[in-house]
Amino acid sequence: MEKTKLLTLLVICLVILNIGLLAYLFLGSRKTHPPKRVMKSSPKEIIIEKLNFNAKQIANYEELIKDHRAKISATEKQNKELKNSLYQFLLKSSENKSIVDSIVNLLGENQKLIENIHFNHFADIKKLCEPDQMESFGELATELSGIFAPPPMPRKK
User: Fold this and answer.
1) Residue 145 has pLDDT above 80, yes or no
2) Whose C-alpha in 2, 31, 102, 114 is 20 to 30 A from the C-alpha of 50?
3) How far is residue 145's CA from residue 59's CA, in Å, rounded to a whole number?
């Protein structure tokens, strides 16, 4: 009789543990986890802080940002129009391969232009720096791709 009570007690404990584990797995996995890379500051604030810009440099930097955004916006608008033109060829029964290739080449040229605009923007920021800020600019230059990288996409479970 003693063995029967012991086995019954063990089975009950195992059932309770299994129910608890299942509840934890199903209910606990629905919690949202914060993204691994949380940007506490905007890229503008990061650059100002890393380079220790003074008030005059900040004012000049803000002008550079306005100019940069205007150029990028115009180029991205052009890209959107080109993509719309490109995808209109999907609706036609006979697509002209040379026109499609031309539009794709124009999109490539626009992407090249965007990268040149970005590069020139940072070259202009470098010109704002004083000699004692150049070391900090060098450190910033190695971090630029991380500062402006899009946040990672959440993994699906």
Assistant:
1) no
2) 114
3) 24
Backbone angles phi, psi at 151, to 5 degrees: -65, 150
Q: Per-residue pLDDT averaged across 14-26, rounded?
A: 84
- Whether the Cβ atoms of residue 146 and residue 37 lie closer than 8 Å to each other: no
Interatomic CA distance for residues 60 and 53, integer angstroms: 10
CA distances from 59 to 45, 62, 119 (A): 13, 5, 20
The whole-number pLDDT of residue 114 equals 93
Structure tokens at 129: 């720096």
The pLDDT value recorded for residue 69 is 95
Tokens of 79: 């890209």
Residue written as token pair 């129910």: 19
The torsion region of residue 52 among left (phi > 0), alpha (psi -120 to 50) and beta comes to left
HSE-CB at 80 with a 13 A cutoff on CA atoms is 6
Query: pTM above 0.70?
Result: no
